[in-house]
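Revision sheet: structure tokens.
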Amino acid sequence: MGLVYSNFRVFFSAKRAGTSFERTLTVGRQQMYVSANEVGMLAREFPEFNIAPKSVPRFGEYCEPWLRSWLGCETVDSIDASAYEGATILHDMNDAISDQWEGR
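Predicted:
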């Protein structure tokens, strides 16, 4: 699974509108699929977020450093049923979320 240009347009629009990404959870560990050209377009459309157009994720790189850098996330967790990709929270989403996650 991965994040693409259109995902970041939505994220930056939401951040511009006041959404906080301070604590972020991804479903599965997401990889980056954003080209240099697309990073440049994001930098021009959303100049307030100081996206360095020359700073481009490697194709397939995990998203956490980019979410921290671009969206100001302080914590980025991922939830997945297996430890295969290094998720920080192991949980089968076919089961109810336990009470320990209430309000988080």
